[in-house]
Specification:
- The chain is 17% helix and 34% strand.
- By secondary structure, the chain is of the alpha+beta class.
- It has a 6-stranded mixed beta sheet with strand order 4-11-8-5-7-6. A 4-stranded antiparallel beta sheet has the order 14-20-19-16, with no helix packed on it.
- It is flat and about 85 Å long.
- The mean pLDDT is 80.
Length: 354
């Protein structure tokens, strides 16, 4: 899949200066024009709204230096030259896209929606679009970037891909996510956060993003034979680009990363020796959406589960009939949204004291 330049191509390019100089200035208004009542007799006092300039350092400096063996510069075939240039353009675009996503993620506000499922993904995105719109971001100047996994969930969401409608059936049939609540959708590999959480979607206003780039040295094929004893009948494609990506207001970007689960320990009852190790903790699924209760169970048919039960957050033996020994059990936790996680635990039952 060669096309890769999706998100960064939507960024603004409203800056002043030359990136090759090491920095540019981006105009950032700190207040809008003040509309006041006009006094016919005394007129209206003169005011001036201000425009600040944000200094953006050019922090990326990339180069290409690709050997073309067997051809001097003047003899490189057109098709080979086109292939190398296309490959270089793809590599640069891929790097640009990744850095643009990193800029969005590192300068944003965090979505408070629950982790996306086929039942809530459409609702999650609509709610966050509304939040961004209330902050003053025009939906016509807004984009939703979704991961491929989130796109799959959208196409299974009963509200979004309502196959009973003509539009919904077309979406489901062709696997297309076009717009959500009037906002254009981009599907892209969004990667993970620094904490390793999968990024589910990003909603951003283009007027608060900046893509800055300039060729410091335009791509050119040069001979390597002249003035060099190492290469014979060879040339190289060389070029150097400087660039930066910036978000001028984090409030114009919302990032939804998969929260995952935190851990709550299931403790053994008195009479069972030892404590459960870190690996035996089971996920607290209620923390995913910030609400809901968790029901812990010991599913049947797994190791020694039939000999134990769970009382509150405590593992206890059934009717005191379990003999001394080491037992392996599986603890499962399920929240009100039917999210589920499980962990394996080792229970050591001590000999009864005389």
């Amino acid at each position: 899949m060669r096309p890769y330049f999706r998100i960064r191509s939507t960024f603004s390019r409203d800056y002043e200066g030359n990136p090759t100089a090491g920095a540019v200035k981006v105009p950032v208004r700190n207040m809008d024009v003040n509309v006041r009542d006009y006094d016919v007799k005394n007129g209206l006092a003169l005011e001036q709204s201000a425009t600040n300039y944000l200094n953006i350092p050019i922090n990326f400096n990339k180069g290409i230096n690709e050997l073309i063996d067997g051809y001097e510069a003047a003899a490189v075939p057109d098709n080979l030259m086109a292939q190398r240039m296309e490959s270089a353009a793809y590599s640069l675009a891929k790097t640009f896209e990744e850095d643009a996503i990193n800029a969005l993620v590192s300068n944003s506000t965090v979505s408070t929606q629950a982790d996306c499922t086929t039942d809530n993904v459409y609702s999650n995105i609509v709610k966050d679009i509304a939040i961004l719109a209330k902050r003053g971001v025009d939906k016509n100047r807004m984009y939703v970037a979704v991961s491929f996994e989130t796109e799959t969930l959208l196409l299974q969401d009963k509200v979004y891909a309502n196959t009973a409608s003509q539009i919904g059936a077309e979406l489901a049939r062709n696997g297309i996510v076009n717009k959500i609540n009037g906002v254009n959708v981009i599907t892209q590999d969004l990667g993970v956060t620094e904490a390793g959480q999968a990024i589910e979607y990003i909603i951003y206003g283009v007027d608060w993003t900046q893509a800055i780039d300039e060729w410091m040295v335009n791509p050119v094929v040069v001979d390597l034979t002249t003035g060099s004893s190492e290469y014979i009948g060879a040339s190289a494609l060389k070029g150097r680009m400087v660039y930066a990506d910036a978000v001028t207001d984090p409030n114009a970007v919302i990032v939804k990363a998969k929260v995952g689960v935190s851990a709550v320990e299931i403790t053994p009852v008195a009479g069972l020796s030892g404590t459960l190790a870190e690996s035996t903790k089971v996920a607290d699924l209620a923390s995913v959406g910030g609400s809901g209760t968790v029901t812990y169970t010991l599913p049947t048919g797994v190791a020694d589960n039939d000999k134990f039960k769970i009382s509150t957050n405590t593992v206890v033996t059934k009717d005191g009939t379990t003999g001394a020994g080491t037992y392996t059990i599986v603890v499962k936790g399920t929240d009100t949204a039917s999210n589920e996680a499980s962990a394996t635990a080792t229970i050591v039952v001590a000999e009864a004291s005389e």
